[in-house]
Amino acid sequence: MKKSIFNASLLAILVIGGIVASFLYNNMTKRPEYSTLTVPTGNITYTLSIDGSIKPEDSADLGFEIGGTIAKLPFAVGDSVPAGAVLAYANATDLQAQYQQSQDLAASAQSELNQDRALVDKANEQLASLEHNHASSEDRDAQRADINSARSQVSAQKHNVAAAQAGAAAAKFQLDKKIITAPFAGIISHQDVKVGEVAQSNVPIITLMSGDSFKVEAYVSELDVNNFKVGDSANVALDTAPGQPYAAKITAIDPAESNINNVASYKITLNFSDQISDLRSGTGVNVSVVSQSKQNVVIIPQNAVFTNNGKNYVYASENGLRVSKEIQTGLTGNDGMVEIVSGLSAGDTIFELNK
Predict the structure, then answer these.
(1) What b-and-e string marks burial along 82-105, b requiring 16 or more CB atoms within 10 Å of the CB?
(2) Residue 341 near residue 299, CB atoms below 8 Å
(3) Any idea what the Cα angle at residue 11 is, between residues 5 and 17, rounded to 5°?
(4) Please, how many CA atoms are within 13 Å of residue 2, restricted to the half-sphere of its CB?
(5) pTM for this one?
(6) CB atoms near residue 340 (< 10 Å)
(7) pLDDT tens digit string along 255-314?
(8) Tally of CB atoms within 10 A around 261
(9) 78, 257, 293, 346: least buried by Cβ within 10 Å?
């Protein structure tokens, strides 16, 4: 029994030893394989990919400055409206009456002013007639006194007109707070009330968005935001049509962070280079941003570079021998090519590690 156990143990040791020996032999005798490459020049691009969504170029949530019962809603969701169109009226009977009264007072004051000005003109004509007919100095002085009195009346009435017009403007200002107007031409995308319902002051009830002008919004983390800059070119592919990218540029990067899923993120805004039809707000997109690009530089495959003690090297051919040569690298492209800043020139021969 003991002999059987001994034989089994010995066999297991021999098997394990054979496996270990085979592993060590294969790894010690295996050599990396290289192929030669003539160093070229070319273009290199580093592109960043982020997700975003289509947003209207302009969007506004609108409400009454002075709330009240909804009296009229001239438009419905989906309607296109011009800039300045009245989108909603709140009941304003009292304010309308005040405005009408103030307008009447202003019109009446203006009429009296016109009459007073006519009296001044008539008094001036009478003075001219007296002077032409060589009337006495007493008559002419009396007429001049009448002219001064009429002019004083005109001056006083001007103040009355200004006060009446100010009252009308104040009434109109309050009345305007009972209507909602479109700040720009667009489409009504949301309307949260019906005629007869009560709308509170400064609570949005209508959303207006631009109907034919869109932008892209995307959020990037604080770690990545410095890789983007205003003016960077980009391609925007819709989730609904990924094979048809549209040209765009970064037009804004928010200076302040937003909290997205408990991560400090920064909003990046892109505008399309051309007008694009049939876009819908909220459509998801993938944005490829050309962060860096260089033309006609020395480039080699990234797998030809190796690092030793924090420095970059390649195996280069010198006098028929393979020697390590220190290099300085620059931009690394998405295609696996890396820019060579120094250490190699176009036409040099290097060794690339076979994959």
Answers:
(1) eeebebbbbebeebeebbeebbeb
(2) no
(3) 135
(4) 0
(5) 0.58
(6) 25
(7) 999 988 888 999 999 999 988 877 888 899 999 988 888 899 999 999 899 999 999 999
(8) 6
(9) 78
The tokens describing 41, both together, are 């020049």
Of 6-15, 50-59, 120-129, 146-155, which has the strongest mean pLDDT? 50-59
Q: Rounded to an integer, what distance in angstroms lies between the CA atom of residue 140 and that of residue 146? A: 10
Instruction: Tell me the three state secondary structure of residue 309.
Output: coil
DSSP-assigned states of every residue in 115-183: HHHHHHHHHHHHHHHHHHTT--HHHHHHHHHHHHHHHHHHHHHHHHHHHHHHHHHHHHHHHHTTEEE-S
Q: Residue 23: left (phi > 0), alpha (psi -120 to 50), or beta?
A: alpha
Looking at residue 194, its pLDDT comes to: 93
* Predicted local distance difference test score (pLDDT) of residue 305: 92
Q: What is the mean pLDDT of the chain?
A: 86
Structural domain boundaries in the chain: 1-30, 48-58+208-293, 93-177
**Type of residue found at 1:** M
CATH number for the domain whose boundaries are 48-58+208-293: 2.40.30.170
Give the range with max mean pLDDT: 116-120, 126-130, 235-239: 235-239
